[in-house]
Description:
This protein is an alpha/beta fold. It folds into two domains: 2-188 and 222-248, NAD(P)-binding Rossmann-like Domain (Rossmann fold, 3-Layer(aba) Sandwich); 197-220 and 255-289 and 317-346, UDP-galactose 4-epimerase, domain 1. Helix content is 43%, strand content 17%. A seven-stranded parallel β-sheet has the order 3-2-1-4-5-6-10, with helices on both faces. A three-stranded mixed β-sheet has the order 7-9-11. α1 packs across α7 (226-239) and α6 runs parallel beside α8. It is globular, with a radius of gyration of 20 Å. Residues 7-8, 10-14, 33-37, 39-40, 60-62, 82-86, 101, 105, 130, 132, 161, 184, 186-187, 193 line the site of nicotinamide-adenine-dinucleotide. Nicotinamide-adenine-dinucleotide is lined by residues 7-8, 10-14, 33-37, 39-40, 60-62, 82-86, 101, 105, 130, 132, 161, 184, 186-187, 193.
Amino acid sequence: MKNILITGGAGFIGSHLVKLFVKKYTNYRIINLDKLTYAGNLQNLKSVENLSNYVFIKGDICDKVLVEKIFKDYSIDSVIHLAAESHVDRSITNPFDFAQTNVMGTLTLLNQAKISWAIDGFKDKLFYHISTDEVYGSLGKTGYFLEDTPYDPKSPYSASKASSDHFVRAYGNTFNLPTIITNCSNNYGPNQFPEKLIPLFINNIMNNKPLPIYGKGLNIRDWLYVKDHAIAIDLVFHKGKLNETYNIGGFNEWTNIDLIKVICATMDKKLNRKTGTSEKLITFVKDRAGHDMRYAIDSTKLFEELGWKPSLQFEEGIEKTIDWYFNNKDWMDNIVNGDYQDYYDKQYNIK
Ligand code: NAD
Ligand code: DAU
């Protein structure tokens, strides 16, 4: 039996990955370490919580004693590390939390992996770090992020992720820790916390609340359906070359304003509202500080080496996503009735 430590498995991407691995690989034991911050939600994992090859541990990746105990108790042989503070806006108001979890937490895991795995010369071990395209900075109108694009992080979030990537490579180089890093573009899909653009806007349209678009809405993101990201992680985990980096992206660029118009039109149809009703909720608000203009990933390496490409067209993915939020109003209500609504209403001065 392989013992895989997945961190952040109660979050958005982590929960899709945990479900995929627990169900697909019954010969693996999946140990999910998650602190259950505001972004972690055990409701996301209902379908696997009672399966015998799944273990949940509530705890902090920065807790050295706990991390050491988990490596020993479960004879961990691989780590897939997703736990992070992930929201750019929060990193602007509270950068210290990002340095703590994203940098110190990653370092804590790396160091324990080094100590535990050096004993048998790192045989069959892997530290797989999940990172973001934001480490590469911001693109102009043309070009793509490639695996060798120089790092140029511009927000406290991306600076903390870039720093964690550097630590991962440093442990590979200095201590021979077997590592892989993937840098992915914007994910969307079920179970995403409604502070991120797509679930926030779906929820606000349902509730006739304003849709706050930062600046002029011309910033561009490259969107990938979350399950396609999980499939890519599965592939890289099993077939990726050690000490390599792979970019993962959708070749699917949208300006925020065009994306929102698609969501508004789809929501009008589903809510049987007159065309144009949801668009009236669009409100242009003050731009995000240091707002990156454009992200676009070139994932040719992953396609050529491992044969991965996104399985879903965007139109299909966004339809599935909207349907999921419609069919899971209790999931959204549980979050919105928690402390999140307060954070959001204060941010936009909503009465
Ligand atoms: P998320 O915010 O939805 O989930 C993060 C999870 O980590 C939560 O369950 C939270 O409870 C947990 N966590 C936070 N701090 C912790 C700590 N100190 N100890 C243990 N657990 C902790 O994030 P996400 O969107 O699912 O992103 C997951 C990973 O993928 C992150 O590393 C992020 O940088 C990366 N990523 C995200 C995207 C995206 O579009 N969402 C794209 C590329 C890369
Ligand atoms: O590129 C990968 C990254 O994508 C991940 O590493 C991050 O964890 C993830 O949060 C995401 O970062 P973004 O900042 O791109 O995502 P967000 O959903 O916050 O914003 C998407 C775009 O929409 C961005 O240009 C800002 C804009 N936006 C966002 C919000 C929340 C708005 O215009 N209004 C909003 O209310």
